[in-house]
Amino acid sequence: MAMAPTTPTPPSPPPVADAPADDLARLPVVELPGARLHAITERQCIAVILDQLARRRGGWVVTHNLDHLHRLGADPAFDALCRTASLRVADGMPLIWASRLAGRPLPERVAGSNLISSLSAAAADHGRSIFLLGGSPGAADQAADVLRRRHPSLRIAGCLCPPMGFERDPAQIDHIRQTIASCSPDIIFVALGAPKQEQLIAQLAPHLPHAWWLGVGISFSFLAGHVRRAPLWMQKLGLEWLHRLAQEPGRLARRYLVDGLPLALALFVKALGMRWARKKT
Fold this sequence. Notes:
The longest helix has 32 residues, at 249-280. A hairpin with a 2-residue loop joins strand 1 and strand 2. The protein is of the alpha/beta class. The chain has 12 helices and 8 strands. 41% of the residues are buried. The chain has a single domain (24-163, 172-228, 253-273), classed as 3-Layer(aba) Sandwich (Rossmann fold), CATH 3.40.50. Strands 4-3-8-7-5-6 form a 6-stranded parallel beta sheet, sandwiched between helices. It has a two-stranded antiparallel sheet with strand order 1-2.
């Protein structure tokens, strides 16, 4: 949301071994203003999920970005819900920059829009199945076709695009639950946007206790080609939001310009304050 701060990058935290810890509580964490995040790479995130699946332990991943931080501060219920996630990772370069300013750098961005591809590739290699839930009409099926072409051995248990307003209809929620349960997938990607996808995961996860759930926002549309993703150089520079804004200015202007930019600046100031406070103690 803002250009990268020019302060020197502090030393990285101790690396996590590629083989994940038996206990998720042992994973390193970084405290940022408004969020507590696991200090792991995308590769390590995937390793944790696969390890937990092998042990028949389910869980869910929340990928925090700047919009999430805004919601966490404004909605105590959403904050409490996200605190129950098994893994909380940073999807958004402003969070990475803030961690560096705070002197507790996160190793890298772990984006849901990347995980849907990299975790699906790992699932194919390990004989795990996936389910695609949500997205715009047709996006889940088209995203599934893309993933099948990339990974012919990938087992796609199913796709489902609930109708608008499903979250207010208990019968629709029950239909979603029964549909997914009948497929018994290992990994469920939920593309509904925050906070709807996190709220639905909280409702459904107890019914599939051995599965892993990930909220992935607009990722189905990226894979299906309905929405163009920013070039890699823009992603690395933290300018993906600008690429999205250019495509959907009417929908995203308030989120990025009115809410996002001031929040990013406040986050950087608070992060510097955290670093200064530690130096004084």
